Amino acid sequence: MTQQPLILYDIPSTTPEKAWSPNLWKARLALNAKGIPYRTVWVEYPDIADLCKRIGAEHTGMRPNGPHYTLPVVQDPNTGAIVSDSFKIAQYLDKTYPDTIRLVPDGTAAFQAMFVETTTYKVMFLMYKTFLEKIVPLLNPRSSEYFRRTREAFFGVKIEEVAPPGPARDETWKEMLDGLSLVTKWEAEGKGIFMMGETVSFADIVMLALLHWVKIMEGVESKEWKDVMGTDDGRWAKFYQALEKWIWVDEGSYGDK
Amino acid sequence: MTQQPLILYDIPSTTPEKAWSPNLWKARLALNAKGIPYRTVWVEYPDIADLCKRIGAEHTGMRPNGPHYTLPVVQDPNTGAIVSDSFKIAQYLDKTYPDTIRLVPDGTAAFQAMFVETTTYKVMFLMYKTFLEKIVPLLNPRSSEYFRRTREAFFGVKIEEVAPPGPARDETWKEMLDGLSLVTKWEAEGKGIFMMGETVSFADIVMLALLHWVKIMEGVESKEWKDVMGTDDGRWAKFYQALEKWIWVDEGSYGDK
């Protein structure tokens, strides 16, 4: 295969795997699942907007002061394509590399989009509130300062006050576990461990990224990881084991070289 | 075809079509879309539990005082099957009558279940609050009394106080229209007018039942119907027109004869 490796722009952390953000993991897992060669380029938070403007990556939202740029972005030197947003990346990879595992089977794009949005509110955002305080120290200094400043502006309080340990955080965590059980309930309609039964699709990539986030943030010995693995009679433990083979990160390099 | 007609147990109203409840319409539209011969048996609210127990229909929920029975129920004299719940009915019909339009294509059962639940909260329940007051007078006397009594127990206030005309009801209605736009946003990921693109599935039956409910409750000259038809640049008007052919009701008979 004469195919050149793609580039995945990701945000580094000081954790052993370096990759830590669930939305970034969604794109990485899509590439890993499909076995498409790529290399990671690590970008600190304050450099994301400039990078995106320079390489021509689309913004993913609008803010009062203009377009908002986010990672993941995938750059494909084989086609010249630059794609933002993990779901759009999965769809791009499906279209461009049709001989790899299909992550958005025909006719399911709208369902996958609904799944991404629903789990963002019912699972990811609740994890995010719980983990927020722990994200700050695991980022490199420039990203850490940027993350704290922008998130405190968003929430209007110190990061430590968003979900301090105690009943409110416990409640948020419980609500997140209920979100997992909701997905389990839907999946019971299919006849398999995945959202589409026996067939893996982007929805499962999303769930794998979210489960793995708990492992990254809390560690395998934590109450939180045990909560997740025990939820729905161990169903998420089985799910994680089935797809764990896709969880790996290359060394990568800094900057766009 | 030597197939005997199935029986759909439905709740009557004094509207011209008699059928009026969105969850019942979901089952009726599934039968109509598939072209499966059936006849309607009309059952008043206070008679539902006794009917279900007598014919052996499963309850669909639990209440403090025991199992809770609801319609739709479909009875199939060809197989002896008795099926409660519109989504289960659609799945039963797919399995038993495989030569008709497939409403739950392979691998989509979990997605369809997610769609049913999401639209129940984001669309149907908001319509329900808005229409509540208008449902009472369109039911026959025994059902009307039962409906008012049980719903007032549920909400803890008079039906007229749940969403009285004014800013609160306007806000609920606006939220419902936002729910429709959410579905439109997801569907934009597919490339067609339906949730699965060009392929009709149970998700579309759900949306058709909900849209038709607005027509039944408010009429074609109402602001509400015009709101819905105008939402998302007329997308729901096109959708309704495409599937309107499935909206019909047989005369039916009272009781289980």
TrEMBL record, chains A, B:
Highest taxon of source: Eukaryota
Q: Which GO terms describe its molecular function?
A: glutathione dehydrogenase (ascorbate) activity; glutathione transferase activity
Q: Tell me which residues make up the GST N-terminal domain.
A: 11-101
Against InterPro entries, the record matches this protein to:
Glutathione-S-Trfase_C_sf, Glutathione_S-Trfase_N, GST_Omega/HSP26, GST_UstS-like_C, Thioredoxin-like_sf
Q: Name one GO cellular component term.
A: cytoplasm
Q: Which CDD domains match?
A: GST_N_etherase_LigE (cd03038)
Q: Name one GO biological process term.
A: glutathione metabolic process
- Protein name per the record: GST N-terminal domain-containing protein
> Origin organism of this chain?
Dentipellis fragilis
